[in-house]
Amino acid sequence: MSANSFWEFPHTSQRMPVLAANVVSTTQPLAAQAGLRMLLAGGNAVDAALAAAITLTVVEPVMNGLGGDAFALIWDQGKLHGLNASGRAPQAWTPEHFAGLEAMPQMGWDTVTVPGQIAGWAELSQRFGKLPFATLFEPAIAYAAEGFAVTPIIARQWASQAPLLKDQPGFASTFFPDNSTPKAGQVWRCAAQARTLERIASSLGRDFYEGELADKIAAFAASTGGALTAADLASHRCEWVEPLSMPYRGEYTLHEIPPNGQGIAALMALGMLDSFEPPRPDQPLDLFHLPIEAVKLAFADLHEYVGEPANMGKLTEQLLDRSYLNERAKLIDPAIARTPSAGMPSQGGTVYLTAADSSGMMVSFIQSNYQGFGSGVVVPETGIAMHNRGRGFSLKPGHRNQVGPGKRPMHTIIPAFITRQGQPFASFGVMGGNMQAQGHVQMMQQLIDLGRNPQAAVDALRFRVEAGPRVMLEAHAPADLAAALQAYGHKVELQSPNSLDFGAAQLILRQDNGIYIGASDPRRDGQAVGF
Fold first, then answer.
1. Contact, 402 vs 392, CB < 8 A?
2. 317 class by beta-carbon count within 10 Å (0-12 exposed, 13-18 middle, 19+ buried)
3. What span, in angstroms and rounded, lies between the C-alpha atoms of 99 and 178?
């Protein structure tokens, strides 16, 4: 693609990207600015990412909170590092604990695993950060104590979630007082959250796992039917991991966090698509049918085989074996939608952000309470909303992802990173449950196959694969595209204009001259800022 066509903006949104030597891109403007403040104070990309992430727990509570999990990819000094900051199941979570259930609960204490996110903040800061840990909390503490104006998108999500969670322990008194939620433009404060953030900041995060906050969490669980104990919290440790990768179109490579995350599904689908010719810009169907079929096959394997890494043995490398993926690709008919099944290898609420600085450091970071506020459980007088990540477990006996004491569930949240001939090319993520892996595939096609600039790639029409032949398209999808997919056998559903089912992407691309191009998604309140 020529330099001129790279700078074309072919979609309805005409939002422009940010070009700068230092960039932060997040889902909420106040969080983006918090990250930028750290860069201006002499911090690096990790400091900026953490300040943005911490601020997001305050200003976007409908998508994340203090009781969630996190993952990160960090490019620094010529190497990509991976951090798994997801937590494990309480020791009381034996299969017998869930006897009589066909599936994991959707909300409440029996969905709450140990939150790993705060320990992840501390790990990242201690290993890569330049600024004092407490400094990173200053914007978030100020917004929690003094208040911030709620945006229309966040107000809408708050109003839709609160009535469903109002009866969960502690939720109403913190996030649904007087049976009401904040309206767009209204100022929201949470003094308890400010105090909690201060304790986390001053203790380098340990108070959440071994101090006063941990005691409050464990005591509340004990008094309201939760299985989470002080011992479960104290035993939590993050894990530094070696990222997985998949070459694509010769010179590019997509990198993902290994299981227990779903990033392996993006790599599998991409490996299958590499067997086909690149999509043609003048043939929109090329960007839909083939990747839809590849994603379906990858998801079939994901849900059959992926879970706690210790239970997977050599399956990870076997699922990514090129000969296996070539055989899976042969199951894709270029003109017919098929119902996938798992192969035989040889034996939805999240926030994503990315930051990059002039030294060359780039951070791809994601954190989540899983579904909006999460479990609905909120520890009184702390502002800590506990996630419902335990929903990711299976109750199927013998399944690699079967619930069990101390196990980590299969995770949906995944950061992504692209290298080109071994050098950093782009840091990005796409939020939203199982949208994330398939969103990564679609972003790769936009960036690599079509050569789009970051903002054009973020703005492009997206699909979302669901169970069976069901394929969701955004409301503005052309009628002829929907009809063509229907003719191939896909069950197409157009979603409402305000749907968040297609996630929201943030992206930073590094040019050869060292200047970054930062893009944010108009589907949420995203903003990219830089200097």
1. no
2. middle
3. 37
Q: What is the pLDDT of residues 448-483, one digit of tens each?
A: 999 999 999 999 999 999 877 889 999 999 999 999
Which residues are bridge partners to 256 per DSSP? 244, 416
527 neighbors 507 (Cβ within 8 angstroms): no
Instruction: Give the residue numbers annotated as catalytic, written as ranges.
Output: 350
Separation of alpha carbons 410 and 261, rounded Å: 6
Give tens-digit pLDDT for 247-289: 999 999 999 999 999 999 999 999 999 999 999 877 878 899 9
Look at the pTM and tell me if it is higher than 0.70: yes
The whole-angstrom separation of Cα 437 and Cα 429 is: 9
Cα 109-113-117 angle, rounded to 5 deg: 125
Angle between helices 435-444 and 289-305 (to 10 degrees): 140
Residues 6+ apart with CB under 8 A from 385: 61, 65, 66, 67, 171, 174, 175, 369, 373, 374, 375, 377, 378
Q: What is the DSSP string of 367-426?
A: EEEESTT-SS-EETTTTEEBP-GGGG-B-STT-TTB--TTPPPPB----EEEEETTEEEE
> Rg (Cα) of the chain, in Å, rounded?
22
